[in-house]
Amino acid sequence: MPIQERLFGALADPTRRQVFERLAAGPRAVGEIARGLPVSRPAVSQHLKVLKDAGLVKDRAEGTRRVYSIDPHGLGAIRAWLDQFWGSALDAFQHEIERDRENEP
Amino acid sequence: MTATITPAPVRRTLTVRAPQARAFLVFTGGFGRWWPAGHSIGKSPQKTAILEPRVGGRWYEIGEDGSQCQWGKVLVFEPPSRIVLAWQIDAEWRFDPDLVTEVEVRFTAEGPDTTRVELEHRHLERLRDAAERARAAFDSPDGWGGILERFAQAAAA
Fold first, then answer.
1. In whole angstroms, what is the distance from residue B123 CA to residue B8 CA?
2. Which of A27, B51, B115, B136 could bond B31 through an S-S bridge, CB–CB 3.0 to 4.6 Å?
3. What is d(CA A101, CA B6) in angstroms, rounded to the nearest whole number?
4. Distance from A87 to chain B by nearest Cα, in Å?
5. Domain ranges in chain B?
């Protein structure tokens, strides 16, 4: 699987991906990100929180606004990828344990 | 100037319907039976993956062309309750013998036929340190920085 797919597998939600894409184009405040998106501003804030928790984006205060941006040299992307990676690996492990069990006499 | 951030470890927990000893055995000795073929860093498609069940053992994949791609080594091997693996893959998906991040897997019996499996992948900041050591490589078109940069360009187009 290309690395890009692995990476952006962490961004499977289409709206969240749109939010991330907007930040990829440059730092933005929540209001700017939400403009033109078919979801409410609180929903955008929620997506930003998920992206921030995953380490994919960072934020900083600018006056009274909070400005979000992605961090290309941060560890967020690789950490998000590793989280998915181990999730699917353990799913496969669980599947094998259950399959093995069914085959037992 | 980049602030130093210590990233939280990746943690995953699941419960499997198997006695502790069997869960440990399938995870380690049976590694190649369940390790997803897509979880590969080799150039050749992955044929199987092997975890040598002893301290100092390697864990690696074998490609369909017979080539081997090492992921790291076994740091702790305590059947049936615990294993610690060294993950020595850098941000460029290459084996780096100087890079050691740790993957600890604990197996805890919750009942005679139920085992809790807890995985923790830690010291992720070492991936960044290794990346900074090889800054040029990290900034190559296939590195994380390069990918995100291209993605940013595509998104801005």
1. 8
2. B51
3. 40
4. 7
5. 10-124
- Whether residue B14 and residue A22 make contact (CB cut-off 8 A), yes or no, is no
Can you tell me the distance from the alpha carbon of B79 to that of B72, in angstroms, rounded to the nearest whole number?
19
Taking CA atoms, B38 is separated from A52, A85, B3, B44, B60, in Å, by 27, 10, 34, 11, 14
Q: What are phi and psi of A18, to 5 degrees?
A: -60, -40
Q: Which chain A residue's Cα is nearest to B128?
A: A75
ipTM given for this complex: 0.78
- Could you tell me the pTM of the whole model? 0.66
Q: Give the domain B10-124 fold.
A: Alpha-D-Glucose-1,6-Bisphosphate; Chain A, domain 4 (3.30.530)
Best B34, B85, B117 residue to mutate vs chain A (most A CBs within 10 Å): B34
Q: What is the pLDDT, as a whole number, of residue B24? A: 96
Count of structural domains, chain A: 1
CATH of the domain at A78: 1.10.10.10
pLDDT at B20: 96
Please list every residue in chain B whose beta carbon sits closer than 8 Å to the beta carbon of residue A88.
Answer: 36, 38-39
pLDDT in tens, B9-57: 889 999 999 999 999 999 999 999 999 887 777 777 888 999 999 999 9
For A27, the domain range is 3-102
Contacts of A73 in chain B (CB under 8 A): 2, 131, 138, 144-145
